[in-house]
From TrEMBL:
The keyword rRNA processing does not apply. Gene3D superfamilies: Aspartate Aminotransferase, domain 1, Type I PLP-dependent aspartate aminotransferase-like (Major domain). Belongs to the class-III pyridoxal-phosphate-dependent aminotransferase family. The lineage of its organism: Eukaryota, Metazoa, Chordata, Craniata, Vertebrata. GO terms for molecular function: pyridoxal phosphate binding; transaminase activity. Pfam families: Aminotran_3 (PF00202). This is 5-phosphohydroxy-L-lysine phospho-lyase isoform X4. Its cofactor is pyridoxal 5'-phosphate. GO terms for cellular component: mitochondrion. Keywords: Pyridoxal phosphate. It comes from the Eukaryota. InterPro entries: Aminotrans_3 (IPR005814), PyrdxlP-dep_Trfase (IPR015424), PyrdxlP-dep_Trfase_major (IPR015421), PyrdxlP-dep_Trfase_small (IPR015422).
Length: 446
């Protein structure tokens, strides 16, 4: 038992001794010891303040007082499972239903979600599951394992079972989908990632290509991309899928109404996790009456010890309250648009900046070697992230080439934060370009 504050070096030594090396750290060359968070800021053991552009999970801001208060007050009264009647779970389901299309009216609550209504505008991070409407357009010679032998018109994809990246919720969504359709096969988008459970690694090209390879019942749809051109597959007529978002939650870019977050369809399953609890372990699957009834017909009970607990639902309700009261949806749209504009100005100045995409405060900036080949500038991206950390800005990379700067801050991220971050990025890119011209080696700071 520690008797006083432990230094960073001692903490790192204990971690290396007690935790597996597969449990990775941000900035492994010089990891940060974070001891406190507030709003869009995180603080290390020395009290240094960092702008957090990584932790979208703290959706309404780190340690938001209303969310903390809701958890504390409910913990003082009761925290048990959902087999008892309690108002919090039905109140939370009702509030969530008001943000979704009418057909998504049955809810399952869980305590784990891999990554969040949360979706992400990163086209290589979401999957689609082949649905009954799609299956009806396939030859009957594939009653159990359709392999999509014919091109499917995008208009045929009016109803899909959609999954985002959250492990436990996505695993349940797979079970629901397979029971409802009577089929085992899954259609996923190239580079998709859906969670760490073995059932989800099997359907995540981002992961399975480095492990056991692609299973025969997993079909990878190429990504139509006006920037890089279409990704090609061996199959001559691959199906085209649409992507939803995987890294945002209710409010970050969603329009209330009949459709989801700017997408021109209504899915049959939506999974939510992480951010709906502002980091508290809560997740949810929303589906239709038809899908739920098909699962109920198996006679199998669905139970999750901590899913839908009074505390988790109190936290979820508080997050929705904060989103509404602080008008964070409009804030994310305004600040995100401003950040995109600033980044666009930098693109004209720095050739290394390729495509810039985003919705709200979820933005990706592609770093490339040159405009002709658009080869990923992976080393340069690592260097930029390392230098930003020296400037007390936390940012991460993503993408198949690990060359995409990924902005996903809490929704309270401000206009001043955007100006400051882009100004530091500009200075770092300018300095990096000077080093490249003088043939200096880009070194990550230890």
């Amino acid at each position: 038992m520690a008797t006083g504050p432990r230094g960073k070096a001692a903490t790192l030594a204990l971690r290396r001794r007690l935790l597996s090396n597969s449990c990775r750290l941000f900035f492994p060359e010089d990891p940060i010891k974070i001891v406190r968070g507030q709003g869009q800021y995180m603080y290390d053991e020395q009290g240094a303040e960092y702008i957090d552009c990584i932790n979208n999970v703290a959706h309404v801001g780190h340690c938001h007082p209303l969310v903390v208060q809701a958890a504390h007050e409910q913990n003082q009264v009761l925290n048990t499972n959902s087999r008892y009647l309690h108002d919090n779970i039905v109140d939370y389901a009702q509030r969530l239903s008001e943000t979704l299309p009418e057909k998504l009216c049955v809810f399952y609550f869980l305590n784990s979600g891999k990554e969040r209504v949360v979706f992400a505008n990163t086209w290589c991070g979401t999957m689609a599951l082949a649905l009954p409407d799609i299956l009806r357009h396939l030859p009957q010679t594939f009653p159990r394992r359709p392999v999509l032998p014919h091109p499917i018109c995008p208009g045929k994809w009016q109803h899909r079972l959609r999954l985002c990246s959250r492990s436990e919720a996505n695993d349940l969504a797979l079970r629901l989908a397979r029971q409802y359709t009577g089929h085992w096969d899954v259609v996923v988008l190239d580079h998709a990632y859906h969670g760490h459970l073995s059932s989800l690694i099997d359907i995540s090209p981002y992961k399975f290509r480095d492990l056991d390879g692609q299973k025969e019942w997993v079909h990878v749809a190429p990504l139509p991309d006006t920037y890089r051109g279409p990704y090609r597959e061996d199959h001559p007529n691959p199906a085209v899928a649409y992507a939803s978002e995987v890294k945002r939650v209710v409010g970050s870019a969603q329009e209330k109404g009949r459709k989801l977050q700017g997408e021109d369809f209504v899915p049959d399953i939506v999974t939510m996790g992480k951010s709906i609890g502002n980091g508290h372990p809560v997740a949810c699957v929303a589906t239709t009456q038809a899908v739920a009834r098909a699962f109920e017909a198996t006679g199998v009970e669905y139970f999750n010890t901590f899913g839908g607990s009074p505390v988790s639902c109190a936290v979820g309700l508080a997050v929705l309250d904060v989103l509404e009261k602080e008008q964070l949806q409009a804030h994310a749209a305004s600040v995100g648009s401003f950040l995109m504009e600033l980044l666009g100005q930098q693109k004209a100045k720095h050739p290394i900046l390729g495509d810039i995409r985003g919705v709200g405060l979820f933005i990706g900036v592609d770093l490339i070697k040159d405009e002709a080949t658009r080869m990923p500038a992976t080393e340069e991206a690592d260097y930029v992230v390392s230098r930003l950390k020296e400037n007390y800005i936390l940012l991460s990379t993503d993408g198949p080439g690990r060359n995409v700067l990924k902005f996903k801050p809490p929704m309270c991220f401000s206009l001043d934060n955007a100006r400051h971050v882009v100004a530091r990025l500009d200075a770092i890119l300018t300095d990096m370009e000077e080093k490249v011209r003088s043939c200096e080696t880009l070194r990550l700071q230890p």
